[in-house]
């Protein structure tokens, strides 16, 4: 009498993620992270189009960055430290503001444009194959790494325009904004293995991302109510306009994961990200230039 051999089943049950979220079975395609659709020929055409699009965007950012360096005046904004100092007379601790550095705004504005240029050139050249592999999985981590640097620099410069000049505060809002973008990577990575979209990373990213804007709003309102020392007129436009831009990025992600209309194709959302990035950086750069960096 022979014993029948039992072969292990390949239909493994779905595992559960934290909070009861079910993960896709091993080897299965996760519903929450469906990649771009179409025939092989259609997909190759779309990817080639994105490659050209990134290359064009790289040049647009590069040209603007160079122009910003060449045309800007020498306007600077201060960065202070506020370490405690012991007052012998009153026997108490008190802040001791010290000028640490005068930041030239022209090169600083150019920097976030040039960071984007480098990312676009990478994706359209040496990083193109990896870019395509990630897009097929509804991912683009390079996008969020670039945003973690460029948009965090943008938020710092906006803060400095309304008087946020403390080194510690600058480092904190930079890091919080960078963390928001790194949560974007986690959102796309986590949902590779979920049957339904898990919004945990998105929610945490929104919490991290709103804090710098709360701080900027406090400084902006304080500056507006400070009598004669009001912020320049162009700052009144920059704060609300860039706040709206930053939130449209989050809306784009929601539309991708909700698969609303054309956003059902991940590559459409990718193009929207690219256009939003160029628009936000262009608006901030040239409004600042017109307001404070244009040569007299």
Notes on the structure:
There is one protein chain. By secondary structure, this protein is mostly helical. The protein contains eight helices and two strands. The protein is globular and about 75 Å long.
- The proportion of strand residues reads 5-15%
Largest sheet: 2 strands, antiparallel
- Report Rg: 24 Å
Tell me the strand order in the biggest sheet. Answer: 1-2
What is the CATH topology descriptor? Answer: Rhopdopsin 7-helix transmembrane proteins
Which class in CATH terms? Mainly Alpha
Arithmetic mean of pLDDT: 88
- The count of helical stretches stands at 8
Summary?
With 296 residues, the chain is mostly helical. The protein has helices at residues 40-71, 105-124, 128-136, 141-161, 167-190, 200-224, 233-258, 266-293, and strands at residues 76-87, 92-104. α2 (105-124) runs antiparallel to α4, α4 (141-161) packs antiparallel against α5 (167-190) and α7 (233-258) packs antiparallel against α8.
Could you give the topology of this structure?
Layout: H1 40-71, E1 76-87, E2 92-104, H2 105-124, H3 128-136, H4 141-161, H5 167-190, H6 200-224, H7 233-258, H8 266-293
Antiparallel strand pairs: 1-2
Helix pairs in contact: 1-2, 1-8, 2-4, 2-8, 4-5, 5-6, 7-8
């Amino acid at each position: 009498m022979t014993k029948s051999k039992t072969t292990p089943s390949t239909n493994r049950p779905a595992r559960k993620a934290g909070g009861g979220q079910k993960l896709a079975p091993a080897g299965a395609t996760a519903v929450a992270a469906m990649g771009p659709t179409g025939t092989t020929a259609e997909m190759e055409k779309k990817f080639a189009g994105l490659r050209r699009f990134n290359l064009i965007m790289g040049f647009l950012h590069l040209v603007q960055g160079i122009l910003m360096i060449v045309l800007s005046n020498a306007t600077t904004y201060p960065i202070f430290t506020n370490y405690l100092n012991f007052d012998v007379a009153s026997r108490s601790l008190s802040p001791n503001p010290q000028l640490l550095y005068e930041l030239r705004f022209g090169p600083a504005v150019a920097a976030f444009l040039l960071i984007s240029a480098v990312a676009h050139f990478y994706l359209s050249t040496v990083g193109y194959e990896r870019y395509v592999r990630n897009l097929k999985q509804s991912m683009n981590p390079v996008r969020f790494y670039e945003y973690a640097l460029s948009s965090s620099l943008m938020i710092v410069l906006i803060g400095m325009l309304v008087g946020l000049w403390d080194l510690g505060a600058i480092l904190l809002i930079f890091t919080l904004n960078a963390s928001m973008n790194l949560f974007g990577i986690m959102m796309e990575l986590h949902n590779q293995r979920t049957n339904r979209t898990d919004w945990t990373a998105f929610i945490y990213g929104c919490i991290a991302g709103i804090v710098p804007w709360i701080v900027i709003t406090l400084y902006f309102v304080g500056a507006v109510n400070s009598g004669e020392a009001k912020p320049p007129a162009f700052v009144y436009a920059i704060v609300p306009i860039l706040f709206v831009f930053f939130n449209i990025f989050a809306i784009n992600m929601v539309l991708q994961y909700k698969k609303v209309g054309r956003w059902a194709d991940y590559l459409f959302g990718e193009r929207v990200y690219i256009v939003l990035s160029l628009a936000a950086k262009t608006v901030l750069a040239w409004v600042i230039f017109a307001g404070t960096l244009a040569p007299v």
